[in-house]
Amino acid sequence: MWCSYCGKYITKTDVTEGKTCCAGCGRVLFEDNFTEDCTFVKGASGQSKLAGSFVRTVQSDESLSRQRTLQDAEYGIENMVYALGIDGGASIVRPAVAFYTIALERNFTRGRRKEQVEAACLYIACRESKKPYLLIDFSEHLRINVYVLGAVFLQLCKLLSLEEHPIVQKPVDPSLFIHKFTDRLFRDRQHLSISRTALQIVASMKRDWMQ
């Protein structure tokens, strides 16, 4: 989880208090308190009743189901990486699966299509690693409207507390895509000089505040 106060991903969970804290600054990022103590409250009729709600114990079959779900998600993300030609291998798959794990634990996957959540997690991992891929690349692969996938991406960023992260705040650097496009358009060595010229133009635009 992203900590907007110190700008780190490092988090730790205090199981006894049900709190997720930043290991860097110690600030509480998420709190999920529950207790085994019984308390009673009076209802509208004046009768006492048990307060709170029961938390079901996680059984072994549920743990196996969760493990299968994560394995399926990892397999889906790996297939998407291969289909889109994203380099990096495990260095891209691992953080994407980590994002999906958090989404699963927070019930973010409930009511949403599995492949859309996988694509959003992989897109965040690509943005973090500065890979030259846009959200529309993922939407075209899934054959869905880019605005549908964009909504899932923004909701996931909110869940991960990434609203103030550069992934969301800063626009994509156009220089990341130059080599990708020139390599597709020009098959000879000419694309190297074209890439250099394009990068110089982008750098000039940045200096002149034209980006």
TrEMBL record:
Limits of the Transcription factor TFIIB cyclin-like domain:
67-157
Q: Which GO terms describe its cellular component?
A: nucleus; transcription factor TFIIIB complex; transcription preinitiation complex
Q: Which InterPro entries match?
A: Cyclin-like_sf, TFIIB, TFIIB_cyclin
> Is Ribosomal protein one of the keywords UniProt gives this record?
no
Compartments (UniProt record):
Nucleus
Q: Which Pfam families match?
A: TFIIB
Main subcellular localisation: nucleus
* SUPFAM superfamilies with a match to the protein in the record: Cyclin-like, Zinc beta-ribbon
Gene Ontology terms: biological process: transcription preinitiation complex assembly
Molecular function (GO) terms for this protein are:
RNA polymerase III general transcription initiation factor activity; RNA polymerase III type 3 promoter sequence-specific DNA binding; TBP-class protein binding; zinc ion binding
Q: Which CDD domains match?
A: CYCLIN_TFIIIB90_rpt1 (cd20553)
Keywords, alphabetical: Metal-binding, Nucleus, Transcription, Transcription regulation, Zinc, Zinc-finger
Q: Does the keyword Nucleotidyltransferase apply?
A: no
Family (UniProt): Belongs to the TFIIB family.
Q: What's this protein's name?
A: Transcription factor TFIIB cyclin-like domain-containing protein
Organism of origin: Genlisea aurea
